[in-house]
Amino acid sequence: MTLDLAQTIAPVEAAQKPAPALAAGTDVLGRIGNLETRTARSVSEIDAAQAVRYRVFAEEMNARLSPDAVRRKRDFDAWDMVCDHLLVLDTSIEGDAEEQIVGTYRLLRQEVAAVSGGFYSQSEFDVDALVARHPDKRFMELGRSCVLPAYRTKRTVELLWQGAWAYSLKHGIDVMFGCASFHGTVPEEHALALSFLHHNVLAKDEWHVTARPELFRTMDLMPSEGIDARKALTAMPPLVKGYLRLGAAIGEGAVVDHGFNTTDVLIVLPIGKISGRYLNYYGADAGRFAS
After folding, report:
1. Which among 261, 12, 264 is positioned nearest to 122, based on CA atoms?
2. Does the pLDDT value for residue 287 go beyond 80?
3. Per-residue pLDDT, 283
4. Considering only CA atoms, which of 60, 20, 53, 56 is closest in space to residue 36?
5. What are 89-127's pLDDT values in tens digits?
6. How far apart are CA 1 and CA 192, in angstroms?
7. Comparing C-alpha atoms, which of 102, 135, 121, 127 is closest to residue 181?
8. 291, 27 contact by CB (below 8 A)
9. How many angstroms separate the Cα of 121 from the Cα of each of 32, 156, 193, 284?
């Protein structure tokens, strides 16, 4: 499940374009003003990221987490200790890095997933079949994205995406994927947007992937001729719209996640299919942003 970020991933003004890492050897993946992005450096920083997730998912979005999670006020699961955690920090906040975390994104590379219980998304979508179809490509799963309400601005989203992009180039990733969420557990309430995705951007052929049969909920809720594309895009969660702009496709079928009170779709984004506009903007050379 992922939070629908408050802004799309359209390019910002040149003055706010993410800056590269400041010096050779640094693990900072980019900066915009007082915000910077990098991966977590310690268990305590991961714990702080889990606290941010709890504030957003449980306190704001009313996700039903385990009693232990509620007691600890942390959103956590078994994947947290094997994933890398991309952070956005507001360096103008006094205190340690743990107090500066305002956004986070969880990253799981294929070689790590292979020895650590697989991908999180496999619990909802048949991503194992997709990965097996591409033995020559390296996959990375993105998930658990969230930003604190006061920081849901275009530049924060720019920084999260730029950090994921720099990380993927640094690690030689060929395909990014992960769940994106519509609020609520009734897919029919999102009939226009889901039907638009089904008829227009369904992942096909070698990239085709489906929801698990026992969880499959149809996205084909309206005939294509009855869909107003402009209205459908307006009804789309910002995170989904952002990925569509990059050139992503959508898996077939949605999955209802009652625990997080969402209806999930699967985003599939091969690096080679990212539109040239964004490749030019973020840079095709990993050295530009990543140490």
Report:
1. 264
2. no
3. 64
4. 20
5. 999 999 999 999 999 999 999 999 999 989 999 999 999
6. 21
7. 121
8. yes
9. 31, 25, 21, 27
- Smallest Cα–Cα separation from 178: which of 264, 64, 54, 116? 264
What tokens does 82 get? Answer: 């094997």
Mean pLDDT of 207-212: 98
Average pLDDT score over residue span 51-76: 94
In the 3-class helix/strand/coil scheme, how is the chain assigned residue by residue?
Answer: CCCCCCCCCCCCCHHHCCECCCCCCCCEEEEECCEEEEECCCHHHHHHHHHHHHHHHHHHCCCCCCHHHHHHCCCCCHHHHCCEEEEEEECCCCCCHHHCEEEEEEEEEHHHHHCCCCCHHHHCECHHHHHHCCCCCCEEEEEEEEECHHHCCHHHHHHHHHHHHHHHHHCCCCEEEEEEEEECCCHHHHHHHHHHHHHHCECCHHHCCEECCCCCECCCCCCHHHCCHHHHHHCCCHHHHHHHHHCCEECECEEEECCCCEEEEEEEEEHHHCCHHHHHHHCCCHHHCCC
Q: How confident is the model at residue 13 (pLDDT cuts 50, 70, 90)?
A: very low
pLDDT above 70 covers a percentage of the chain that reads 85
Q: State the first-to-last Cα distance of the chain, in angstroms, to the nearest integer.
A: 30
Instruction: Report the alpha-carbon distance of residue 227 to residue 53 in Å, rounded.
Output: 35
Reported as half-sphere exposure (CB side, CA atoms, 13 A), residue 26 has a value of 14
Mean pLDDT of 265-289: 72
- Kindly state the tokens that stand for 249: 């496709």
Residue 121 token pair = 């998304």
**pLDDT confidence band for 284 (50 / 70 / 90):** low
